[in-house]
TrEMBL record, chain A:
<dbReference type="Pfam" id="PF01471">
    <property type="entry name" value="PG_binding_1"/>
</dbReference>
<dbReference type="GO" id="GO:0030435">
    <property type="term" value="P:sporulation resulting in formation of a cellular spore"/>
</dbReference>
<dbReference type="InterPro" id="IPR014224">
    <property type="entry name" value="Spore_cortex_SleB"/>
</dbReference>
<dbReference type="InterPro" id="IPR011105">
    <property type="entry name" value="Cell_wall_hydrolase_SleB"/>
</dbReference>
<comment type="similarity">
    <text>Belongs to the SleB family.</text>
</comment>
<dbReference type="InterPro" id="IPR002477">
    <property type="entry name" value="Peptidoglycan-bd-like"/>
</dbReference>
<keyword id="KW-0378">Hydrolase</keyword>
<keyword id="KW-0749">Sporulation</keyword>
<dbReference type="GO" id="GO:0071555">
    <property type="term" value="P:cell wall organization"/>
</dbReference>
From TrEMBL, chain B:
<feature type="domain" description="Sporulation protein YpeB PepSY1 and PepSY2">
    <location>
        <begin position="167"/>
        <end position="354"/>
    </location>
</feature>
<dbReference type="InterPro" id="IPR014239">
    <property type="entry name" value="YpeB_PepSY1-2"/>
</dbReference>
<dbReference type="Pfam" id="PF14620">
    <property type="entry name" value="YPEB_PepSY1-2"/>
</dbReference>
<dbReference type="GO" id="GO:0009847">
    <property type="term" value="P:spore germination"/>
</dbReference>
<dbReference type="InterPro" id="IPR048402">
    <property type="entry name" value="YpeB_N"/>
</dbReference>
<feature type="domain" description="Sporulation protein YpeB N-terminal">
    <location>
        <begin position="26"/>
        <end position="110"/>
    </location>
</feature>
<dbReference type="Pfam" id="PF20769">
    <property type="entry name" value="YPEB_N"/>
</dbReference>
<protein>
    <submittedName>
        <fullName>Sporulation protein</fullName>
    </submittedName>
</protein>
Amino acid sequence: MVRSIFMSVILIFGTLAVIKPDEPLAFSGQTIERGAFGDDVIELQARLQYLGFYKGKIDGIFGYGTYWALRNFQDQYELGVDGIAGTKSKDALVRVSDYHGDWVHEQIEKGNRFTHYGGIPLAQQTSAGAGSSESTDVQLPVKYSERDLQLMANAVYGEARGEPYEGQVAVAAVILNRLESAEFPNTISDIIFQPGAFTAVADGQIWLTPNERAKQAVLDAMNGWDPTENALYYFNPATATSKWIWSRPQIKQIGEHIFCY
Amino acid sequence: MKSAIYLLSIAVLALGLYSYEVRKDNEHLQQTIHAQYTNSLTNASEKLSTLQQSVSQSLLFQDEVALENELDNIWRISNEFRSTISSLPLSREVSNEWLRYVGNIGEEAKFAADNDDFESWHKRMPLVNQNLQALADEWTVATSNFYQNDASISEWASVAEKEANDSPFKTVAANLKTYGETDFPLTASESDWLKKKELQNLDDQEITKDQAIEKLESLIPGIKDATYTVTKSKDNAPYPFYHIQFVKGSRIGYADITVKGGYILSFLSERPVQEKTGITQQQIRDLVTQILNKAGYTDLQLVEMRENHEAWHMSLARVVGEDKALVYADGVQMKISKDSGELLGLNAMEYVQKEEINEDQEVVPIDWKAFFRPGTQVEEEQLIYTENEAFQLRKCYQVIARFDNDLNETFRVVVDTENHDVLKVEYMQ
């Protein structure tokens, strides 16, 4: 008798494990709201998509698309509509949806184009390698794109990788200050590739792979930090030969670079 | 001996072939670049000529439709000319002056078309037209050498390296500078904007280096007793400030503090940050409030939070008046670590010298159902102050609107409260 009860319990747990293989990956204890990013948001988007509320890309970024989808879910399940995934909303989602966490993360890592709708076999919801392989670990101010970040990180790494962090943020800030200035082109790409504008473009160092520090420096500059106090130019006093650059009003020196208007 | 001579001959032959191939490749590259630069130069010259003709033609019309059409052309051509000029290896001075001058013409055209301000366009443009004609002629003279049969890439290389005064563009550069100042003097609002940017209205008492450090440590106690290096801004900087660099343990960073009044303009600290965190978004919000209270920034409202893998980046805007309108131009940015909630960055440069607000601007109600197409939901509405294209601070409606469809595409739309001009539309991710 005891043996059969024991076997039944094993069978039930075994069945549950097969039916819901990814449940251990359920949400962490954090409340999730607009502005958040990470694994919890990936799960939130995947579960909302499973139920048909979220039609956008599963990228781990809690933007407006996720926000409206969550509100619609909360409205339909009478959970109190606030667009914030607290305990009640997350519990309800876990109750009524499945989440194939390992599969979803695998698709993201591979850069596949995929969806996570319920009732459709997962194999039919992915196309290998067709999706964006762009990093999803950054949230930028709305006026910048990930391409801007990538291009600027290349420029900062090529121009200032030996400089202190402040000096790297400063180089990124100069590029962004030029974007605001009438004397320079209107796009980040045009500014970076303007002939003669950056040494790293001329000597090819812009094509080196930037490190995480250079990306962080660009991210800080895009978020408003400008250690140069509005500079439009910089130069290395040990190597600069242009008389014109020496005639510009100087602001401050960071590392090897003098920043000026 | 014979074998050695044989091997040596083979090596010399291989080296010769290799250097021949490299030289050929270089020549090919040079020719490609030369052709591209010449093509850009031709484009620039043609666009300059078309722009001048368009400006001239715009002086023909009194009819508003005909004039608006011409103004649109001018705005488009000026942008194309700017793009072409910026792709040429001209000296920095020549390139900057061209971009500024032609950009000003385009902006004037757009402003006149948007605001139906045809009178001031007709008043200002005869002189611009005359100067543009002179510039086009000088440009033709300056660039004639680049079309000669014997012209090579070396001509371009020397232009890029020469100062404007030593280049064929000497006259063009000098005239662009002069015309720029006479044809487009700064307006009052542009001048105010520059004054604010350059903190020219600060007249507080000066503080010492030690007081600056004290000020910094009071806001960020985590760096107390760090090793500091303090330098003063260069003599030509438009406002004097202390540049404080600090090192404490694994923290390295800087802060800029104004000499007058000791205002913190910017602070940034770098240290290793753990990605995994137990700190909630609400706790981060509470920390922001604590920091603001400590700094005395009591009139700010958190408007945006963005989580990144090491830190949260936050934007705050000043709140003014009874209608609690947001002034984005007086913003503060913060960076807080995800592992411990430590303040890693503060940027308050725009907040230091606050905008003067005209609260009397009329607020004319808008019927959003008539303003937006059917199927657009207005989800949030808030009053804000923001600059228009002429750098004038305007009271505006800020609306978060979305398409009521599967993708829920969302937009931030900024509309002037008085004349209902749309100042900004942003696609929200």
